[in-house]
Design a protein that fits this description.
The chain has one domain. It has 2 helices and 3 strands. The protein is an alpha/beta fold. The chain has a 3-stranded parallel beta sheet, with helices on one face. The longest helix is centred in the middle third of the chain and has 14 residues. β2, α2 and β3 form a beta-alpha-beta unit.
Length: about 70
Amino acid sequence: PVWSSRGRVLVTGGTGGLGRVVARHLVAEHGVRDLLLVSRSGPAAEGAAELVSELSEGFGASVAVEA
């Protein structure tokens, strides 16, 4: 599939193990710059803040995390 780097991409389960891998892949390999990561715990999920920092500071992505 062809991914567009424009628009916001929703990743459900975005703070879990697989969701983190998907988010990193979308940003690093497909140039996605706007992510919405949703999970049951939202921003309180373990490691969520570090993931946001990695993607935003390291790749310039805009990342929101919601429950």
